[in-house]
Design brief:
single chain, Helix Hairpins
Length: 272
């Protein structure tokens, strides 16, 4: 283990010291820092999307600190250590890359792999499924979808559910019926709006989003990533609107929708 990693681990031990440690860090639990872990993961993705590599280094450090935090709590409870985490993931990766390590030995490479990316993915899934045979309960006790975390972001979770269902043949063969389903769901949403039933509107809106995520899956697009890029684009264009409005010595609230739309189209023409 590198000296830098040892120092980081020692820092965490000090922060959690019962007597001399930080009062905030001492009282944290797995659950209390879970939200921070998710936040740090999104900040890593944001830095990657912006190609801000200076901040990517910093954000990866923040994410690593989360792992160190969990490992320290677990070690205090005598559950596992950081070394256990590192050993476990190394063994898993060796197991799942037999085309690189045919003997499961990190010191011994095999012959250059001739497998395509699709074949590697299929092999990965077979190995993963075999691993789970020894860890999951019988199908009478567990749902096929139970391994997908309900805490996962909704769009990502929808795609995971759809991929799992597709493995047993519950899927459309191409995008054409997906488009038809989207139109059907939009019609049902419109009817729910006419009924003025908010619970029904929410239900139908969920169906629309689920079907849209299914379309994204069929198009090999990650819907959460695509949406995030659109969010960034909207921020960029709206920021240009603010600049244009300010140049007129006005506030956004002073402008009509027609004016704001005109500035929006200008931002688009400028390539923003």
């Amino acid at each position: 283990m590198s000296d830098a990693l040892k120092t980081l681990q020692h820092l965490m031990v000090c922060l959690r010291d019962p007597e001399m440690g930080c009062n905030w860090d001492k009282k944290q639990t797995y659950k209390s820092i879970a939200a921070y872990t998710l936040e740090e993961a999104y900040e890593v993705i944001d830095a990657i999307e912006r190609e801000d590599f200076e901040h990517l280094e910093e954000e990866l450090g923040d994410l690593l600190f989360q792992v160190i935090f969990y490992a320290q709590i677990a070690q205090e409870e005598q559950r596992f250590t950081f070394d256990d985490i590192a050993i476990g993931i190394t063994e898993k990766m060796l197991r799942r890359h037999p085309h690189v390590f045919p003997d499961g030995d990190i010191t011994r490479f095999g012959e250059p792999s001739s497998l395509s990316e699709n074949e590697i993915t299929e092999q990965w899934q077979r190995i993963k499924a075999k691993e789970k045979e020894n860890t999951v309960k019988s199908s009478s006790e567990n749902s096929f979808l139970d391994e997908i975390p309900t805490s996962m972001p909704a769009l990502m979770q929808a795609v995971k559910i759809q991929k799992k269902a597709a493995k047993v043949g519950f899927d459309w063969p191409d995008v054409s019926p997906v488009f038809a389903k989207i139109r059907e769901e939009l019609d049902e949403l419109e009817e729910a709006i006419k009924e003025q039933s908010q619970p029904h509107v929410e239900e139908e809106m969920g169906d629309v989003l689920f079907t849209m995520s299914n379309l994204a899956r069929h198009l090999d697009v990650a819907p959460d990533v695509a949406l995030n890029k659109t969010n960034i684009k909207f921020r960029r264009r709206f920021g240009r609107i603010e600049t244009l409005v300010l140049a007129q010595n006005k506030k956004l609230t002073d402008c009509s929708l027609v004016e704001l739309d005109r500035y929006w189209e200008q931002a688009k023409r400028e390539g923003l």
